[in-house]
Amino acid sequence: MSILYLAFLLASIGCMALIDWRYRLFFWRDAVRATLVLTIGLVFFLIWDFVGIGLGIFAIGETAIMTGIVLAPELPLEEPVFLLFLCYLTMVLVMGFHNLFTRGERSRS
User: Fold this and answer.
1) Which is it for strands 70-72 and 75-76: parallel, antiparallel or unpaired?
2) Residue 33's domain spans which residues?
């Protein structure tokens, strides 16, 4: 049992938050909207996981770097944290590219 994977996920979320804060991309642009979008994305992917688990498609892959804590059958603690990171990363990238492309359009006008 190890917390290595969970620690790396949390550190990655922290780094993403620093990028978000520095460039005001997602939470620092509109915290209420960002919370809503992130919650919807997380719930969507958790439902997706539960459906996959129910159909026997998803199963826990035991490794030495995971905590071994299971929140539900075949749903390790690290899974919702990973899904949170995935949704946050996606929104930071989307807003970053949006800012990049709209800045370019504004400078051409």
Assistant:
1) antiparallel
2) 4-94
Residue 39 lies in a domain: yes
- Identify whether the C-beta of residue 99 lies closer than 8 Å to the C-beta of residue 25: yes
Query: Considering its fold, how many domains does the chain have in total?
Result: 1
Task: Mention every residue, 6+ apart, whose C-beta is less than 8 A from residue 63.
Answer: 5
Residue 71 counted as domain residue: yes
Assigned domain for 108 exists: no
Q: What is the pLDDT of residues 33-92, one digit of tens each?
A: 999 999 999 999 999 999 999 999 999 877 888 999 999 999 999 999 999 999 999 999
Structure tokens at 89: 């990363």
